[in-house]
Specification:
Layout lengths: L2 E2 L7 H36 L12 H22 L2 H5 L1 H10 L2 H10 L7 H11 L1 H4 L1 H11 L5 H12 L1 H13 L13 E8 L4 E6 L2 E7 L2 H4 L2 E6 L2 E7 L3 H4 L2 E6 L5 E16 L5 E14 L3 H4 L2 H14 L2 E2 L5 H4 L10 H34 L9 H4 L1 H20 L1 H21 L11 H29 L4 H15 L2 H16 L3 H23 L9 H4 L8 H11 L3
Helix pairs in contact: 1-2, 1-8, 1-9, 1-10, 1-14, 2-6, 2-16, 2-21, 2-22, 4-14, 5-6, 8-9, 8-21, 9-18, 9-20, 10-18, 16-20, 16-21, 16-22, 16-23, 18-19, 18-20, 19-20, 19-23, 20-21
Amino acid sequence: MARLPRWEPEDPKFWKETGSAIAWRTCGITTFSLIFSFATWFVMSAVVVRLPAIGFKFTTMELFWLAAIPGFASGTLRLIHSYFIPVLGTRPVISIATIIKLIPMVWLGYAVQDLNTGFWTFMVIGFLSGMGGGDFSSYMPSTSIFFPKRLQGLSMGIQAGFGNFGVSVVQFVTPWIIGFAVFGAAVGGPQIFTKADAIKGAITVTKDNGVVKDVVINKPELASAITVVKDGNVVKDVVFQETDTIKGIKVDVKKDAAGKIVEVVPTKGIKVDVTRKPTGEITDVTVKNVIKKPMWVQNAAFWYVPFLILAFILCAVFLRSVTVKARGFKGQFEILSTRNRALTHSWNCTITYITTFGSFSGYAAAFPMMIKTIYGGFDGAPDPLAYAYLGPLIGGLIRVITGPLWDKWGGSVGMLYPILGMIGACLALIFGGYLTPTGLEKFPGFVYIMLFMFLMTGTANAATFRQYPIVFAYSPAKGAQMLGWTGAWAAYGPFIFTSLIGMAITKTGSAIPFFAGAAIFYAYANFLNWWYYTRKGSERFDFGNSGGTWWDKLSDKEKEHMKHIDLHQ
């Protein structure tokens, strides 16, 4: 039986005898599916940092757009998904949403193998991968409906927390999984990955007012290959001439089963990078080792196909749907009505959810490209994916930990102080010089501040799962709907954050304008949270299960009056 005829989670007897087992089973299966939804959503952010190295000629801004476009799709699709669960039910919605994500994953897996794949093709694939973020607005309302109010923070914190691990999984697994032919030749051959690292001590560069005046070759084995062209005392060019000795520094020898050599591929060579002013003066010279090795980038997408199929089977077989009193799609827009001040609180919740989850998802998408563009130009530059996964991991884990705390202490308090921490992180990045570094010495501090930002966004986001059902306590359907609605707008975070950070960097040379604007927005959101929900005498306060809520303080007559107004009775 797909749809349950009775669902009363607030009834202690029903919850103990029937509801608890079904609710936690639903939470477990949908959480498993949600992990791979998030993996689908953020797979492009992990892949784009590898595209230039395997031969794709995209500009920096184009790479930022590819990382951003899934966020645009997810926000748009969440606005649609916001209304599915009350009308169609959990089982059909989650099952279809799971299996349909095979489309972008399979397409991406083949697209990265063809260097003729154009930018706009990748944009379409990126848009479709946003389906993995779009369906979040079906997962959370479903969980909200299945659980009583006292367990809203715990259940949704678990789901969102573990679900968001999908972001960390895709960014952590990608560097490893693309390193070998895990599927053999079944999904295609390797791409040639090219990486260039500076050779320390290879040359000595003398500068005057930022212009190179002399270049001295320090390594005898390079002296025959590098020629410094001068016009008097001015360095005009530095030319690298490959020799047999240099070319043969390292090769990859492949043999057949009989031991016969079938292929010899140079995997390491030398290149000279010369940086010039528009007027032609040389400002820097770097001698680099160039390493070429096979890489199966398609694995970043194909790896998740079996998991999506398994998740679909679990959803289709074991999930059930709850009958919710809803008046079709039209009735779902009632959170934008003026009854019971729904409109005011809907937009307040939207702003605070953009602040929390919008920031989390936005920074998760932008973090790899930020590392690449801000710190990638220095010798010994870090691999973005070696650090990027840590942020979503911390942000996801803290949701699981703090969810039960906000059930006890209140959702509004759970947002107040973490958002202050987010403001502090923005100011630290700006005034600490971490967005305009002159070398890698700032990189550890940059990473620590960004990880603190993820910690704060995750902590604050866990609080919203408690707060929004409390704000709309007179209508469980509205509370569930609000989680979907706010999640839809916040899903634009990866698109907005990544594109704005990219534009700030390309237009001004740094991300300072973005983080200055973010700090101002966070301050405004925190004021709304304090004024309407946290301060003494606020309209719909939430001081937790132990401190009471505005709904608990109402008489039975007042509660019935609010329900009466809400339902047009």
